[in-house]
Write the structure tokens for this entry.
Amino acid sequence: MAKQLRHDGFTLIEMLLVLTIISVFISITMAHPQFNLLQNTTDYEIKKLTSEIDYYQAYAIKSHAPVMLLFRPNRNDIKVETINPHRVTTIPLAPLQLKMTSNLHTLIFDKDGKANQFGTLRFEHQQRAFSLIFHIEQGRYRISYQQ
């Protein structure tokens, strides 16, 4: 009586083919340059700046204490002072450039997240100008692009 051989599992050729396909997918995913270009765009920088402002507005609501944002065009940064706990933080704005023509130098979010004054912050990034225009109600702002 002859024994029957069973052919379960992968052969060497099948295994090499699967490993080749997996390695091609991994190399395409890891070396894709799109993610590096995203960080250099003006829209990315605007989103980064507005997320910082939104964070401190939410922090004022959460801690039930005012938060002060001091915009310093001569140093091109934002100085943030919180009360509960008392902490002073500096946020650099580079590669954005805060213009001296901005008419908003201090912005205080109260315990309800409302801004204490209105005004405009003017920025430039890669020869493209835009403004953040703050409204007094509910601490809202809008983005305006200059041509």
Notes: The first strand starts at residue 67 and ends at 72. The chain has a mean pLDDT of 86.
